[in-house]
Amino acid sequence: GAVVSQHPSRVICKSGTSVKIECRSLDFQATTMFWYRQFPKKSLMLMATSNEGSKATYEQGVEKDKFLINHASLTLSTLTVTSAHPEDSSFYICSAFGGNTEAFFGQGTRLTVV
Amino acid sequence: GEDVEQSLFLSVREGDSSVINCTYTDSSSTYLYWYKQEPGAGLQLLTYIFSNMDMKQDQRLTVLLNKKDKHLSLRIADTQTGDSAIYFCAESIQNTDKLIFGTGTRLQVFP
Q1: Residue of A nearest to B49 (CA)
Q2: Shortest CA distance to B20 belongs to which of B77, B91, B67?
Q3: Which of A49, A101, A107 is facing B42, going by the closest CB pair?
């Protein structure tokens, strides 16, 4: 089946620095990718929809200047957490559709801001 | 707005059946999904059901959909310790590829 690779799987960064998370579709082209954030004991929340070649669409309450999304090609979307703070610590997951009903998810990135 | 709810915890004995319930609010959902998340891992699609179906069975998994009540359930027969994980239901938003997830149900299987 289709594979989505997310990197890194785990990152620890200092408060105030920026972190980039990559999401790649390995064997299919994804014109649209999605970024989710998982809060402890809570659900996955859709943060934004990443569209190849255009600006991302952010969900209400998500700061676009803090969570920069770039979808430069049909196989790569990146999420950059800028000026990270401890409250940004979370599990971030990307997903892409492979052209049918199934969404394929990356392995997720555990971000810890210290 | 869209909202999907699940109970947070479920504990079952090995060999028994598990039933995980989910309620959603968007009646225009096209597909409804069940995902499994093991510790530290991403999401694995278990099964999905089209909104005009009532039931879908796939080996040990049975999905029931009550569209009138907007209620979705996942039954796992002969639950095993390897089934211990967090289970998320999700609904697709009509005309988009967005998924709205439930809060997740942590299933714990004990011997």
Answers
A1: A101
A2: B77
A3: A107
Pick left, alpha or beta for residue B84 (phi over 0 → left; psi -120 to 50 → alpha; otherwise beta): beta
On the 0-12 / 13-18 / 19+ scale of CB atoms within 10 A, B20 is buried
DSSP for A38-107 reads: E-TTS-EEEEEEEETTS--EEPTT--TTTEEEEEEETTEEEEEE-S--GGG-EEEEEEEE-SSS-EEE--
Report CB contact under 8 Å: A103, B97. yes
Burial letters A68-100, b for 16+ CB under 10 A, else e: bbebeebbbbbbebeebeeebbbbbbbbbbbee
- Express each pLDDT in A51-73 by its tens digit: 888 889 999 999 999 999 999 88
Whether omega before B111 lies within 30 degrees of 0, making that bond cis, reads no
Cβ–Cβ below 8 Å for B102 and A43: yes
In this prediction, residue B19 has a pLDDT band, given cuts at 50, 70 and 90, of very high
8 Å CB contact of A43 and B99: no
B4 contact A CB<8A: yes
- In tens, the pLDDT along A7-30 reads 999 999 999 999 999 999 998 888
DSSP state at residue B84: -
